[in-house]
Amino acid sequence: MEKVLLKKSAKKILLLGNEAIVRGALESGVKFVSTYPGTPASEIGNTFFKIQNSKSKIQDLHFEFSTNEKVALEAAAGASFSGLKSLVAMKHFGLNVASDFLIPLCYSGIKGGQVLVVADDPSCWSSAQSEQSTRAFAYLAHIPILEPSDPQECKEFTKLAFQLSEKFKIPIMLRETTRVALQTAPVKLGKIVRGKTKAKFVKDPHRFSTMPPRVLEMKRELLEKIEKIKRVSEKSPLNQIHRGRVSGKSKMGIITSGISYLYVIEALKELNLEIPVLKLGFFYPLPEKKIQQFIKSLKKVLVVEELEPFLEKEVERLAKDINPLVEIFGKNLLSEIGELKPEDVILALTRFSNKKPKFNFTNHLKKFQNLKLKKRFPQLCPGCPYWLIFQSVKRAAPKGTIFGGEIGCYMLAAYPPHYLQDYLFCMGSSAGIAHGIKKALRRGSDETEKQKVIAFVGDSSFFHAGIPALINTVYNKSNPLIIIMDNKTTAMTGQQPHPGAPAEDKGIEIEDIVRAVGVKNVKVIDPVNLRELEKTVKEFLNKKEVSVIIARRPCIQISK
C-alpha cells in the first residue's frame, strides 16, 4: 500500500480513511509524524512506518512510535516549534493521556503547522473502557476541529488543517470515527509536496512559555484566533447545504456532520425524501451565521449526530435568537449510546417527516432478538504465550486472589475460560489500583489483610504508563504481585515496535528498569516453564514488598 500511496499521478485509488489522511499529510509537506498505536487510528502510524522503512524518495521524513500519546504530541510540537510541519495520531483515549499538554499547547504559537488526528470509537468496537466523544475537547481546549465523512474528505481536510494551523499558528484537530477511519473509497490524488526541511528553533518566551501573567494574554490571543477561524468557517465549502436549498416552501431541514451525513443521505434516498441538509465539516468553531440562516424559516429541524448532543445543543442555542418557534429534534429520536446505523436514521426520519418506511425495522429487530444464538467470546490466538501464563497463575494463586488487568491482548483474560480480571480501566492502572487495594486491605479484617492481589501489565503498556505506577508502589510500600506480559511487541494493535522491542536493534530491558526503581523481587521467566512460573507466583505472593515477574515469550504472530 505504501507504494500506491506514493504515486504521483492524479488518478483515483482506493484508500482507507486513515490511508487518505497519510496521503493528505504527504501532499501538505509533512516532515515529522509521531503516534502511539491505538485502533481505530493504527493504520496511520503503520503506513508511515512502512513508508519510512521503504526505498521511497520521501526525503527527511521522520516517523516514530512514541512511548505514549502525551510524548508523541510533545515531540510533534517540538518539531513544529522548530518550523516543520508535524502530524500526530492517536485514538480517543490517547487524547486523554495527551490532554495535560494539549490544553496549554493551544495557548502557544505553533510555527510550522501541526495537525492532531484523533479517532473515536462509537459502540466501543476496539475500545472497551468507555464510549467517548472527543468533540468535548473543543470547548475545553479551544482547539479547532474538522470532521470528515469519507476518505476523500480525510485527505482534503488534512490539507486544510495544515493550512489553517500554519496561518493561525494553532494546532488543528482532525476528528474521525471508526466508520470513517476504516471506510474504503476512491480518492483522487494530488501532488506530494516536499515541504520545508531546514528546521530552526527561534527563542520566543511570548510564544512558547505558558507562565503567568503572560498565560492570560495567551488565552485572549487564543480566543481571538478562534474568532478569526470562525469567519473562515462561515465561508468554507466544508459547510454546505445538500439536497436542494432552503426556500419559503421548506418546512423541514437536517443538520449533521461526519459519518452521520452519509447515513442521512442514504436514508433520504431510501425514503425518497427531498429535505435540505446542512453538512458541517467544521465542528469547532461552528459557522453560527450559516446555521442561523439555514434554520431561519424552518418549522422543524432534525440534528443527526453520534453520541452526545453537542450539535443539537448549539442549534437550540442559536435558534433562540433567530427562530424561537422552530421544533428541534435529535436525541429524542436517536440514541445517545452507540454508533448510528442507516436504519436508525431511517426510523428517525420517518417519525420526523411522518412518512412510513418501506421496511418494518421494528418487527425485524424483534424477530432477530428471538433467535437463540449461541454466545461466543473472543479468544487469544492459538499458540499465544498468554494461555500458559493464565493457566499457571490460576493454579498458583490462592482462592480469593484479586486480579487486575488493563488494555491489551491480556484483557481477554476477563472472558472464559480464564475469568482472571476483577477490574480493568486503562494503561498503567492495574498496578496503580493494585497498590491502593493492598493498602486498603490492611485496614480490614485479618482475612482481607491476607488477600492477595495480582496485576497484569503488558510490555508496551509498561513503557506507556506502568513505570510511574510501579515507582509509586515501591515508594509507598505495598506488596502486590505485578506480572509484566512481555511478548516483545504492541500486539493488539498490529505488532508495532516499542522501546523494549524496537524494529532496528536491541531494546531497553524491562528488568533493568524494574530493578532500578527499587524492586528487589524480580524474575524473568519463559511461561513455557510452567512449574517455575507457578512456583515463583506462590513465592512472590508471600513477599512483604512488591514483586515483579516478567513473563517473556514473543507473540505468536511475530515469531512465525
Describe the structure.
The chain is of the alpha/beta class and 560 residues long. Helices cover 41% and strands 17% of the residues. The protein is built from 21 helices and 20 strands. It has a seven-stranded mixed β-sheet with strand order 3-2-4-5-7-6-12, sandwiched between helices. Strands 16-15-17-18-20-19 form a six-stranded parallel β-sheet, sandwiched between helices. Strands 9-11-10-13-14 form a five-stranded mixed β-sheet, with helices on both faces. Helix 11 crosses helix 14 and helix 17 packs parallel to helix 19. It is globular and about 80 Å long. The relative contact order is 0.09. The mean pLDDT is 91.
Q: Specify the number of helices.
A: 21
Query: What is the level 1 CATH name of the largest domain?
Result: Alpha Beta
Supply the CATH architecture of the largest domain.
Answer: 3-Layer(aba) Sandwich
Give the CATH H-level superfamily of the largest domain: Thiamin diphosphate (ThDP)-binding fold, Pyr/PP domains
Characterize the largest beta sheet: strand count, sense, and whether it forms a barrel. 7 strands, mixed
Molecular shape:
globular
Tally the structural domains: 3
Looking at the structure, the CATH topology of the largest domain is: Rossmann fold
Question: What class, by secondary structure content?
Answer: alpha/beta
Share in helix: 40-55%
Distance between the termini: 22 Å
Strand order of the largest sheet: 3-2-4-5-7-6-12
